[in-house]
Amino acid sequence: MRSLHLISFFIIIIISLFVKASKSDDGFCSAPSITESDEKTKPIYWKVTNPTLSPSHLQDLPGYTRSVYKRDHALITPESHVFSPLPDWTNTLGAYLITPAMGSHFVMYFAKMKEMSSSDLPPKDTERLVFVVDGAVTLTNTSSSSTKLTVDSYAYLPPNFHHSLDCVESATLVVFERRYERLGSHTTELIVGSTDKKPLLETPGEVFELRKLLPVSLAYDFNIHIMDFQPGEFLNVKEVHYNQHGLLLLEGQGIYRLGDNWYPVQAGDVIWMAPFVPQWYAALGKNRSRYLLYKDVNRNPL
Question: CDD domains given for it (predicted)?
């Protein structure tokens, strides 16, 4: 009986902390208060590389994390990222966020490139997409032509495409890789672009803004969506589908439903969604939410 009283007391204490968080300016997933003018002076996606690790009222709680791993989804928050030297890259630290060990058919990771760093090639028959969230890198291919990739730009690199990503100062990339699934005689091509150059696409029945970074043609077995929500906007469809997702919240904050769970999320958070997990998002706060979303497409699930 005494143990039951202790457990009840502990639960009440935890609930009171969450209630306090919801009523305070420093909310559960809120960043420290900054003025609107300060926000405008920050570079785009600055919160991805400078995340709020935990609210002030929970900073002294040992073992605290918002990260969750379940059979059909995972929320990987910045305080749980583990960086180590990235295999075969030079002077680069990596944090693997989504891998086949979770049940995914793709890999998603952060690559923190330091001064005078460079990438290596992915495994044979593996396609790669890199998206720059901080700094700049130079993409060089076998013809010795080079392209500078800055924040908000990206490159899709077809399977077995020889290339190098080189960084003189420092940069942070989010990288997606998967074994290419061939379809007849279709082939993919090198693509270099930036989000602001991609057109807005129609989203029937929805209010969010959508851009797709890759062509929708059958050659491509995945795409990357950039989705923008204004505060208070939400998905109208409570999605349940066969596609997998890997998501990075680039800006803003909100609530993500995954299965029967509701998670506060903020810039810097990563989510893995397995096939058929119920999913839904609503944007909160005072600023735009933007997330980057991996989605497998154009292939028979058999």
Answer: cupin_UGlyAH_C
Query: Whole-angstrom Cα distance, residue 96 to residue 164?
Result: 20
Token code pair at residue 7: 């457990």
pTM metric for this prediction: 0.86
Average pLDDT for the chain: 88
How many helices (H) and strands (E) the chain has is answered by 3, 19
**CATH topology agreement for domains 52-81+199-301 and 82-197:** yes
Q: Which residues, other chains included, contact 286 with Cβ-Cβ below 8 Å and sequence gap of 6+?
A: 36, 231
CATH topology for the 82-197 domain: Jelly Rolls (2.60.120)
Question: What residue spans define the domains of the chain?
Answer: 52-81+199-301, 82-197
Classified by CATH at the fold level, domain 52-81+199-301 comes out as Jelly Rolls (2.60.120)
Give me the amino acid identity at 126: T
The answer, yes or no, to whether residue 119 has pLDDT greater than 70, is: yes
